[in-house]
């Protein structure tokens, strides 16, 4: 009896693996496409150990041209959104601790998506571009002594399925998934 149960379990396991593989091959389940764009942060205008200006660097790490939509304020349907995140640990126990973040950018565009895509930043393989902001513009103005940890986030435009399909048919690749940079750490002395 126990041998029969074990044999049946093995058969169910083998059938499950075959069904899963057939779904993947048929395209009903597709692995997540990795973005061809990488987001990085760069720091500038270091003041007492902490940057006053932050650059968001978009780098094409793929093997074909990619377009990056314009960035916008916190909310924008046709523009990507940049956010600067902060985790702060004060050097004095009585000082406040916290997290912070903010966003910055330009303006929304209203023409059709293919017309908009003509103005998007083109990046050939290996190319990059930087968009820089003062921390105050990103609503991250902490100045107290302590440990600062910054990272950037990018949220793509909120396009409809029809707009994404039109871009795909036109052969236009763009960052579709949220991106996050590595963390930059700084220390402001007392």
Describe the protein's architecture and organization.
This protein is α+β, with helices and mostly antiparallel strands. Helices cover about 20% and strands about 40% of the residues. The strands form three sheets. Strands 4, 5, 6, 9, 10 and 11 form a six-stranded mixed sheet that branches. Strand 1 and strand 2 form a beta hairpin. About 15% of the residues have low confidence.
Percentage of residues in helical conformation: 10-25%
Poorly predicted runs: 9-32
- In terms of structural class, how would the helical and strand content be classed? alpha+beta
The N- and C-terminal alpha carbons lie at a distance of: 74 Å
Name the CATH architecture of the largest domain.
Sandwich
Q: What's the order of the H and E elements?
A: HEEEEEEHEEEHEE
Which term fits the overall shape?
elongated
Largest sheet: 6 strands, mixed
The overall number of domains is 2
Number of strands: 11
The CATH topology name of the largest domain reads Immunoglobulin-like
Residue fraction in strands: 35-45%
Mean pLDDT, nearest integer? Answer: 80
CATH class group of the largest domain: Mainly Beta
Radius of gyration: 23 Å
